[in-house]
C-alpha cells in the first residue's frame, strides 16, 4: 500500500532537482509508511529526467522514483499525468523548487487520515532567494507562494484556494474529475509562460464536492526563488497572469458561494423563466451579466456563456458520478 504519492512536475529543472529530491528522500516517516515520488518531465529541453535518475541512484533509497514524460505543455496536463500514474490515496504536489520539511509527509498523511471532510490542505513556506531580495519582496511574496495561508490552523474554505506549491489533496477527488473527462479551463504555467490559476481552479472543485480547505501551520517547506524570478519584469508578468485568471475564478466563486451549483440539477420552468427575465433586464441595462443568467436558464441545452456552460456541464457529470458511487456502496 502506498500512503502518499509526491508529484514533481518539471520543465527544464535539471539545476533545481538536487535540493528538491534530497528533501524528499530524507523524509522522516514511521515504519511501514510507504510513499512514492513521481517526476513528470513536461517536455523539457534539458537533461531533467537523466539528472533525476542519476541523483536518485546516488541516494541508495528504497523509495520508488517513477519518471514520466508528458509532451503536452502545461502544468495542469503534467499534474494530470502524474495523478493517473499515482498509487497513493493522498497526493502532494511538490514544485521543482519546493524543499519539504523532514516531517511534511508524515504530518500531511496523519492530518488527512484523521479529517475525512478536508479535501485539500496547505501549509506555510519560507522563501530562500538566490540573490538579495528586491525592495518589493515583502509586499509581493505571497504572489510567489511564500508566507502563510492563514492566521492560525483551521478552515480556510472562505479563502477559496490553497497554493499549488506543497498542496496536499485526496487522490479520489482528482480521480473523480479525470473520470468524467474534466479539462481545466486554466492551463496554469506553460513552459516559461506565466499563465496561472489552475491550482485555485482545482480547489473550487474540492469545494463543489463538499470538502473543506484547511491550513496547517506545522506543515512547512522552503521555496527556492531563482534570480530570474526576482526581476521587475518577471513580477509584472506574474501579476498579469494572476489578473487574467481572476475573472474565471470569480465565476467559480459566484457559482459556489451563491449556491448556484445547488440549483443546476433541478431547475424548474419557473426558475428558468426567472433567469430569462433577469437576463433581459441586464441586457437592456447593457449589463454583461445577462449572459450568465441566460446560461443558467438554458442549462446545457445551448452554449451562450462558454465558461459557465462548461462548469455547469462538468458539475452535472460530477454529481451523477457521485450519486452512482453512493448507490453502489
TrEMBL record:
One term of GO molecular function: hexosyltransferase activity
Keyword annotations: Transferase
Keyword field contains Nucleus: no
Protein name: Glycosyltransferase family 2 protein
Organism phylogeny: Bacteria, Pseudomonadati, Bacteroidota, Flavobacteriia, Flavobacteriales
The UniProt record lists the keyword Glycosyltransferase: no
Domain Glycosyltransferase 2-like: 5-128
A family per Pfam: Glycos_transf_2
Amino acid at each position: 500500500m502506498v500512503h502518499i504519492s509526491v508529484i514533481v512536475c518539471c520543465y527544464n529543472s535539471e539545476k533545481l532537482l538536487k535540493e528538491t529530491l534530497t528533501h524528499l528522500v530524507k523524509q522522516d516517516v514511521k515504519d511501514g509508511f510507504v510513499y512514492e515520488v513521481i517526476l513528470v518531465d513536461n517536455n523539457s529541453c534539458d537533461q531533467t529526467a537523466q539528472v533525476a535518475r542519476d541523483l536518485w541512484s546516488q541516494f541508495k533509497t528504497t523509495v520508488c522514483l517513477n519518471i514520466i514524460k508528458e509532451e503536452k505543455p502545461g502544468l495542469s496536463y503534467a499534474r494530470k499525468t502524474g495523478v493517473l500514474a499515482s498509487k497513493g490515496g493522498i497526493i502532494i504536489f511538490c514544485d521543482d523548487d519546493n524543499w519539504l520539511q523532514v516531517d511534511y509527509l508524515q504530518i500531511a498523511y496523519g492530518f488527512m487520515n484523521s479529517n475525512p471532510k478536508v479535501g485539500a490542505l496547505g501549509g506555510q513556506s519560507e522563501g530562500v532567494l538566490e540573490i538579495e531580495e528586491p525592495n518589493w519582496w515583502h509586499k509581493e511574496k505571497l504572489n510567489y507562494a511564500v508566507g502563510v495561508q492563514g492566521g492560525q490552523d483551521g478552515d480556510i474554505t472562505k479563502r477559496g484556494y490553497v497554493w499549488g506549491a506543497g498542496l496536499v489533496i485526496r487522490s479520489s477527488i482528482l480521480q473523480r474529475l479525470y473520470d468524467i473527462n474534466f479539462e481545466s479551463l486554466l492551463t496554469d504555467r506553460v513552459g516559461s509562460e506565466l499563465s496561472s490559476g489552475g491550482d485555485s481552479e482545482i480547489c473550487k472543485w474540492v469545494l463543489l464536492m463538499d470538502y473543506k480547505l484547511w491550513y496547517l501551520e506545522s506543515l512547512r517547506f522552503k521555496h527556492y526563488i531563482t534570480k530570474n524570478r526576482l526581476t521587475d519584469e518577471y513580477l509584472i508578468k506574474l501579476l498579469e497572469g494572476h489578473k487574467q485568471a481572476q475573472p474565471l475564478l470569480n465565476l467559480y466563486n459566484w457559482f459556489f458561494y451563491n449556491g448556484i451549483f445547488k440549483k443546476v440539477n433541478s431547475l424548474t420552468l419557473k426558475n428558468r423563466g426567472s433567469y430569462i427575465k433577469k437576463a433581459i433586464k441586464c441586457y437592456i441595462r447593457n449589463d454583461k451579466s445577462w449572459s450568465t443568467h441566460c446560461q443558467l436558464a438554458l442549462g446545457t441545452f445551448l452554449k451562450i456563456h462558454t465558461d459557465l456552460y462548461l462548469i455547469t456541464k462538468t458539475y452535472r457529470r460530477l454529481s451523477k458520478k457521485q450519486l452512482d458511487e453512493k448507490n453502489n456502496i
